[in-house]
Sequence to fold (125 residues):
Amino acid sequence: MRVYTVHLGPAAALGREVALVKEGFSWPAYLFTILWALVKGMWVTAILLFLVQACLSGAAMSFRAAPQASALASLALLFLIGAFGNDLRRFELSRRGFREIGVVAAGSLGAAEQRAFERLPELRA
Fold:
């Protein structure tokens, strides 16, 4: 079972926008960092991730770090992005005016959406 947080968008009068965000490690954020952020509409986050990665590469070059040390630092950064990627997405949704209205557990995203619409009264209106 996976746990998802359910977020309701601010445009409730025009049609409800709902986002479900999985708890835990985000493999897409780990593997496709900047592209993942762009696909999720997290433009500022994508720019910041690019700048952090560029600074890390620049620092490794200026300190003449061994290639293994540079690779290890890059992997550590990617791991952190994967570990906190879904939290970054929640923060971005909150910044856009979404509010967290509940938590559901299900085996897949589709089942979680169905369970959310069945159990959360805010979504049935």
Summary: Strands lie at 2-8, 18-22, 99-106.
